[in-house]
Amino acid sequence: MAAKKANRNPVTKRKGLSANAWTTIAVVVVAVLVIGGVLLFNRKDNPAPPQGTVAAEILNPPGSNTLTTASGGAVTVVEFIDYQCPVCEEYYQNVTKSIEHDYAGKITFVTRNFPLPMHPLAVPAAKAAEAAAMQGKYREMYDKLYGDYPTWALAADGKNVSEDTARAQARFDAYAKELGLDLAKFHADAASPEVQKRIDQGKADGGKAGVTGTPTIFVNGTKLEPSGNTFAAVAQQLRGQLDKALAQ
Residues 6 or more apart from 223 whose CB is under 8 A from it? Predict the structure, then answer.
């Protein structure tokens, strides 16, 4: 009888696994399932910021505040702002005003609230703007807040952001009087759940759109990624994006 050939197959030649080995495998499998479940749960509840174009219903829901409106609405600019943000004020002075002037009647310009936690007066200012909007004076209050920025937003040194809520509120009241607003209604609206909801919605929508700081601008849902080192360069870049959108 011929001798039985040696098994040279490295798979079938392998002996059965020990109890310890099976235990190790079981632990690894359970760990993989648990980690996979955690990742799936987190991915569902905390979606990654969207890539490309952001939907209009996120950026510009009904009732959003507008600075300018164009018939047909072919091109919409949405800016997420923090009223106490120094860079937002610089954008207002050096970018936004010139864009509004030069593209009047051609674009719809929308602003959304995105107050940052390091600016203690950002929310009170947003409430003042929203309360003015409820009396049809949003644009005018917006201009007051940024046009008179140093008197309420900056500390006495003129450099650091202010934490003086009383001084800021006094300025907001002065703006309301200058705009002919009903002051009692202005105060009631600023303190209302409706105004707080609008501010919270801006923050939530900004988060969905991938906004992490201010100002953040979108043109027809496409985020502007500033590449210049000056405000003039940013304005030129924004103009290029607007011209491209208008030409389509």
Answer: 54, 209, 210, 216, 217
Largest CA distance in the chain: 114
Alpha-carbon gap, residue 153 to 209, rounded angstroms? 27
Kind plus residue range of the DSSP H or E element containing 109: strand 108-113
Residue type at 173 in one-letter notation: D
pTM: predicted TM-score of the whole model, two decimal places: 0.79
Whether residue 185 has pLDDT greater than 50 = yes
pLDDT at 45 over 70: no
Q: Is the pLDDT of residue 52 over 90?
A: no
pLDDT bracket for residue 163 (50, 70, 90): very high
Cα distances from 166 to residues 17, 51, 119, 156, 178, in angstroms, run 75, 42, 15, 14, 18
Nearest to 85 by CA among 77, 75, 96, 76: 96
* pLDDT mean over 162-183: 99
Average pLDDT over residues 28-36: 38
Domain locations in the chain as residue ranges: 19-48, 56-247
Domain at 56-247, CATH homologous superfamily: Glutaredoxin (3.40.30.10)
Q: Is the dihedral of CA 130, 135, 138, 141 positive or negative?
A: negative
| Sign of CA pseudo-dihedral 65, 68, 71, 75 | negative
The reported pLDDT for the residue numbered 228 is 87
- Assign residue 224 a region: left if phi > 0, alpha if psi is -120 to 50, beta otherwise? beta
